[in-house]
# Entry
Amino acid sequence: MTDVHALHIPVPGVTAITDAWIPHTVHIPLYCRESDGLTFPEPGTVVQEGQVLKAAENGHPAVMSSVPGVITGYQEFPLYDGGRSLYAIIRTEGAFTYFGRGRTKKTVETLTALELSGILNTHGVYNTFDHSVPFADQVRPFQRQIQIDEEDSHGKSVTVLAVRLFDEDPVSIAGSVFSEHYFDLISEGIRIVTEVIHASYVYIFYPAGSAFFEEGHTIDGMTANLQFLPVSLDTYPCGRERDLRKQLKKAGFSHADDHILFTDGRTMYATALAAVYDQPVLETLVQISGSALSKDRLFKVRNGTPIGELAAQCGGLKHLPQKIIVNGLVRGYAVADPQVPVTPQVVCVTIPAKSDIPDQRELNCIRCGRCHRSCAAGIHPDKMLFFYSRHQKMPERLEKLIWQCNDCRECNTACPARLPLAQTIMLLREELSHE
# Structure
């Protein structure tokens, strides 16, 4: 692991959450292409806040309108991660269904994994722990596992719920602030999921030094073995699944062969809203920062809001921006168009000034060994790049090491030649998986 400060990443100090302006127009990704030929409401159709535009299917939860308004049309547009999708363009007008209104709490009876997965899908809930996958797809298999355990005369296997209350990238503090502000709702989500998957142990990872959390923290109504574990955010990487497993082992808990569901505070919050308050995912918390901006902000923002509108709400630009980077300087994505919208998967947006971006031209490998020394998994990215670039077959020992990479991309940060080391490893893994 590497000291975060050695990565020269400025961590914003803003902690106050501000409601972003309701946008005049939202762009809602439908996670399909125009060529797919799917049918959607005609332009001119009036929609309500939270109305389903596309039902849950094909590995995606339902897609809802985040505002009331009128569909003005559809357009294919880039996603924040470089993919493309058809978007519904909605002009905001009319009365809100959820915004500014009190929540009505339901009495939640004991849910099965299948019942909860249905609720998660219809309310648009993703698990944003890592690459943002449909949470329902991760909860549903526990229905079968519980059935197997009940039929097993030799005893039940152990199920573990692991909840991270911070973001994996060191540039983002949004996850930590979010967890402190909304821990009551997060706790409700944790209680629900614990009961549904029959978790015997619940581990909650919080930022070390937090004045809000502590190792003796409790959640009312929890029947599982609950542990709050501090994690230092001064080192990177620290929030991936591999890192949290190491933290468990360090704390004396061994669950190598158990069923562990990894999730985060945002996902537990969305789960509670869906299951307890029947409210879909319509907004998210986004940190927007960078030297090109007049000020850093933490916004509670409607899904579909163009990123460029958030920059305007930060007092505008004080320097010429070089690029827009979504979800961290280490593992993030460069976005070319400020009209790319916020989605539940967007955690932070960084807009650096042109003067802050170093020379990005690739040079030849100088055999300095920094990529190996910085690698938390102890592999050799430079050697893998050597074989890949020359179309040569790697020794078997190197092939085995490829699967130990946790995609932290610290090797890219350490490389003075600016070589695409992490990307090469991902390409090699893809090739090997198809052999």
Summary: The longest strand covers residues 69-78. Residues 379 and 401 are 6 Å apart (CA to CA). The mean pLDDT is 86.
